[in-house]
Amino acid sequence: MFSKTAKLLPITRRVNYTIIEKCQRGCTSSLFITGDKARESCAILTPHVNLDVRFENLELLIENVKLRGMNIDIHQVKTSWHQYVALKDYISQLDKEKTEAVAKMKSAYSNNPKLFKTYETEKDKVREKMSAASQELWNLERTAVIGGLSLPNVLNLETPVDGVEKIVHSFGSKPVSSSDHPSHLEVAEKLGLLEYYDSSYYFLKDKAAQFEMGISYLFMDKFCDTGFVHMSNSDFGRSITVEGVGLDPRDAESVFILEKDSNAKDPLSRLHLVGGASLVSFCGYHAKTITHVKHLPLRYITMGRHYNPESSNGLPGLFSTWQSSAVEAFIASGDSIGAQEEFQLCLKKLISLYENLGYHFRVEYLPPMKLRPWESLRASVQMFSMSLQQYIEIGSLSLCDDFISQRLLMCCETNSEKPLGFTHVVSGTFVSVPRLLGCVLEYDGEKFSLPPKVMAAM
């Protein structure tokens, strides 16, 4: 239940940078700090970027970007990356030459002063070449490395690429209704269950507030009984974690920025309001960590607030709120096979839990156009809105592979002889309470009552 103070949250939906600040920022990434900004910004970590692997099947990558509707010039990124790698090799060679020149200088210092001067001149020339090459390298970092970080995750084979959602499960019969069916806002107002002002300002009352508590505890208890660990996450995340997940920390439609922190000394490390029930909060715990494979998989779950800027979907009422109560899960596995097994097992449990509520719903695999950059596969749990005559997503489960782990260095190890690997992540919003409540209100109408399973969980 939201209090009236919710409207006073110190957040801003847009940060307008001045021309001077844009020049001072130089690079456009909080995750990867280019060399020319290394003295001004603290590089907490350096993401693992290996675009050679991504470019092995160039046609598949181009098709991936096209299917997602992203505007990325893959050929330009590839060209810049090859130039970047070649230039790094060239700088390494120059560094060896400088080291050799210094060694020769030490040898000739006391024996041959004239030869010492020759070696010193040679070292200075090499240093000048390195300085010029470094400047060029920093420029390439913006198009090669940062451009590479903008590439999306590889698509899973189960993701439908024909542009049409793939229904993998359906429960109950789709309710019959007309376009003039009362909306959930009308039903809630008539029953005295909701005071709604706009998408950023509302609060639940009476049975609606009880529903919020009961449904959250129901999902939490059921998954904790199957081995999930209850977590209590931070409501805030830094820009580096936000971008590490795959969001743009400067995009007003992606994430909130704390207004008082928007002029922070280091503009690359601003504070964002994301909510404890969010993927960003979970990743904040595991960024730059190493977990032994014997401790995997990690299964975490939490309930709390989820903050998301108003989307452009134009949905009314509880279907597009800035802040919502949610149950969020995070799973880390040691390899891709284990992650896919966890995904299917978790989806099966989620379907069973929704079936126990007794309402019609369906589960779809979404096409690439509707996936977020870090998702390779997304299962969308949807209920039918009788007033809008369309399905509304009330929960989801996403297969992220090692996309996020490579960016935030979420590593795993098997033994000391093998190199570190990256954990494979499964994440999901098991239930978005406002959206579920909105659909249930339209289903039940004035006969709205708490489902028995929800009452039992309170």
From TrEMBL:
InterPro entries attached to this UniProt entry: aa-tRNA-synt_IIb, aa-tRNA-synth_II/BPL/LPL, Ser-tRNA-ligase_type_1, SerRS_1_N_sf
UniProt entry keywords in alphabetical sequence: ATP-binding, Coiled coil, Nucleotide-binding
Residues binding L-serine, per UniProt: E328
Residues carrying the site annotation Important for serine binding: T429
Binding site for ATP: E393, I394, G395, S396
Coiled coil: 116-143
Sample GO molecular function, one term: serine-tRNA ligase activity
Transcription as UniProt keyword: no
Any single biological process term in GO: seryl-tRNA aminoacylation
Domain of life of the native organism: Eukaryota
Pfam families to which the protein is assigned, alphabetical: tRNA-synt_2b
Domain Aminoacyl-tRNA synthetase class II (G/ P/ S/T): 282-442
Family membership noted in the UniProt record: Belongs to the class-II aminoacyl-tRNA synthetase family. Type-1 seryl-tRNA synthetase subfamily.
Descriptive protein name: Serine--tRNA synthetase-like protein Slimp
Gene name of the record: LOC117650985
